[in-house]
Fold this sequence. Notes:
The complex is a heterodimer.
Chain A: H1 3-14, H2 17-35, H3 41-48, H4 57-82, H5 91-102, H6 106-139, H7 144-160, H8 166-180, E1 183-184, E2 191-192, H9 206-223, H10 243-265, H11 271-285, H12 298-313, H13 315-321, H14 327-338, H15 346-350, H16 352-373, H17 377-383, H18 388-407, H19 410-428, H20 433-456, H21 463-466, H22 468-485, H23 487-498
Antiparallel strand pairs in A: 1-2
Helix pairs in contact in A: 1-16, 2-4, 2-16, 3-4, 3-9, 3-14, 4-5, 4-6, 4-12, 4-14, 4-16, 5-6, 5-12, 6-10, 6-12, 6-13, 6-16, 7-8, 7-20, 7-22, 8-20, 9-18, 9-19, 10-11, 10-12, 11-12, 18-19
Chain B: H1 4-22, E1 30-34, H2 41-57, E2 61-65, H3 72-79, E3 87-92, H4 93-102, H5 110-113, E4 114-129, H6 138-147, E5 153-156, H7 162-174, E6 179-182, H8 186-194, E7 200-204, H9 205-213, E8 218-222, E9 248-256, H10 261-275, H11 278-287, E10 290-291, H12 296-317
Parallel strand pairs in B: 1-2, 1-3, 5-6, 5-7
Antiparallel strand pairs in B: 3-9, 4-7, 4-8, 4-9, 4-10
Helix pairs in contact in B: 2-10, 2-11, 4-12, 7-12
Amino acid sequence: xxxxxxxxxxxxxxxxxxxxxxxxxxxxxxxxxxxxxxxxxxxxxxxxxxxxxxxxxxxxxxxxxxxxxxxxxxxxxxxxxxxxxxxxxxxxxxxxxxxxxxxxxxxxxxxxxxxxxxxxxxxxxxxxxxxxxxxxxxxxxxxxxxxxxxxxxxxxxxxxxxxxxxxxxxxxxxxxxxxxxxxxxxxxxxxxxxxxxxxxxxxxxxxxxxxxxxxxxxxxxxxxxxxxxxxxxxxxxxxxxxxxxxxxxxxxxxxxxxxxxxxxxxxxxxxxxxxxxxxxxxxxxxxxxxxxxxxxxxxxxxxxxxxxxxxxxxxxxxxxxxxxxxxxxxxxxxxxxxxxxxxxxxxxxxxxxxxxxxxxxxxxxxxxxxxxxxxxxxxxxxxxxxxxxxxxxxxxxxxxxxxxxxxxxxxxxxxxxxxxxxxxxxxxxxxxxxxxxxxxxxxxxxxxxxxxxxxxxxxxxxxxxxxxxxxxxxxxxxxxxxxxxxxxxxxxxxxxxxx
Amino acid sequence: xxxxxxxxxxxxxxxxxxxxxxxxxxxxxxxxxxxxxxxxxxxxxxxxxxxxxxxxxxxxxxxxxxxxxxxxxxxxxxxxxxxxxxxxxxxxxxxxxxxxxxxxxxxxxxxxxxxxxxxxxxxxxxxxxxxxxxxxxxxxxxxxxxxxxxxxxxxxxxxxxxxxxxxxxxxxxxxxxxxxxxxxxxxxxxxxxxxxxxxxxxxxxxxxxxxxxxxxxxxxxxxxxxxxxxxxxxxxxxxxxxxxxxxxxxxxxxxxxxxxxxxxxxxxxxxxxxxxxxxxxxxxxxxxxxxxxxxxxxxxxxxxxxxxxxxxxxxxxxxxxxx
Lengths: 499, 323
């Protein structure tokens, strides 16, 4: 296989001083927002999106990816020391990590979280590299009907794997779909739902929606929750876990990584889901499940490995098929489109430097993160003392500047503000914004490819089931729907999310 | 070392050269409006030319994107800006030649409210098919379409685009029954034809050429009157006596009406000087076109002809887009 040639290409791109710099910057920002509860990586990526336009595509993606997996490292620090998850994906780390800290074992908990993350990151990099070759072969067979079926699967997945009530997720997908259709229709050239607003001719901008819903709205929601930040001290000399603990953790790390790689690929999956699943598996398979929740070190290792593997694996559908599996990946699609790159299977062949460069940078980024996180932990912890009243106004200002600079119109700032309000509203009524953004991004593509497929087949709808790949994708979507409807499975799903 | 007298003489000579230009000096920052989102051809031209123009006129030059409505928002902005030559428009055949014919309630008149400065770039179309289509000449293609109606689909860069209109005109002339499938831009259309989703394309030659050379597409002909060196075996539209010989994509600089002719002349001179630089010519080739500059009058004639020619096509085909 020319896997090694490809990886060599990738490292050649990732190791240029500029890209190393952006990788470091991404990892650094990622750790920062990971440590700070209330600022999610998605907020950060949304805000930085307009600023990446001036960067070369590879550098921009390398940095944004660094923020995402960097946050998985940073999130665990806060979870262990403060018992507040820095990120949704480190919620589960609080359970045993904070217990360990209370028992004076904060050092080993932090160390094992970083080691597990690094292990998972390394494995996930290899998995992405290997998985992409067969994906690329498959990608060449993708035409309009396959794309349509893939979008159907993606949106079904977004509903099935969303938190909370599926009805709400369906509603969110539909609202996203509807708003995604605003603008000039590519198939007829006619403007739709533009209400004669010139600014809506090309549709509602992705950047203002993303910044509004994920930047400002998330901040507002965070402010509404009472903050309790009690910092636990930890001893420097006791950072390293004992040999016995390491041995105990290794199988947990391997299982967590495997689960993360699998669940990360699923549409709607990613870091958070992987960590929940990994914890559940460890608890079930343990000889003495009662230890969990009382400072079991496997309870830290498995979910930390899983969330990092999941974060990186969610790049597989994005990089190979151009399909974003979760909201963060949808933002990455936006980042590519800003660069004039239409995401899709062709990215791998037409932009090998970008594709392999990003993959290689992930491993380098993980290496940087372990260096950043372990020795500098004191610095990160001190950041937790910066009050929100200083931090948040600065972020809101940054959001406005970012939105304006993306399209140079004040109209976009209004759009952003409207969507901030909508975002708060959606969160308050318990509807997740993630399915919305997936509907917004995938919906128009689904319609476009549906109509194109129908036109090319001269109106024969059987084209979607006669082509094998398309048929398989539709069948998978149908299976997901059945699973969602079956009461037994549904109860189980609720349980998983309850935990 | 210059002697004092020599220096004085040199200063006089320089002053003599500088004098005619001083009548139309640039007094403040110049803005180049790109009516499309960042990353497209017009945008890249603006960002390549901008810094050079700034050096030449001694004022900052900034590029501003005003995307939306097929370029009409940005063009309208320039048409209504102060007529002092400090607000420039860079755009393409879409905004300048087809939109005026397609959109009834356009808020400005390309021919009346904008003043042409110079053409920038022209790229003839390469007419190609997917290798699985068993034809290699125009005659074979016509025969294939007769025998297999509905099997051919032309991928175009969008509804009402020059590619779309070209496909319509050719279909009409030869009685072809091919379908016309709009995509989001030329790059997406090429991708679709390379992957055999659609199977016929008319697209900028330099962007399409590599696919023909690597046998991912099969060339049929090139638009214009000149064969292309990289695909010299392909006949031209002129040789084949095809309609709309001059079809292709092009970009140009314009500014608002009532700009003093001296200002337009100065801009024309500076831009043509910049576009003659070897690095800029190379950059344009990477974008898929050859640099083609003109005087303001030549550009005006070019524009009028393009608007009339495509207007006739739009009318004959009864294409309507409301917006």
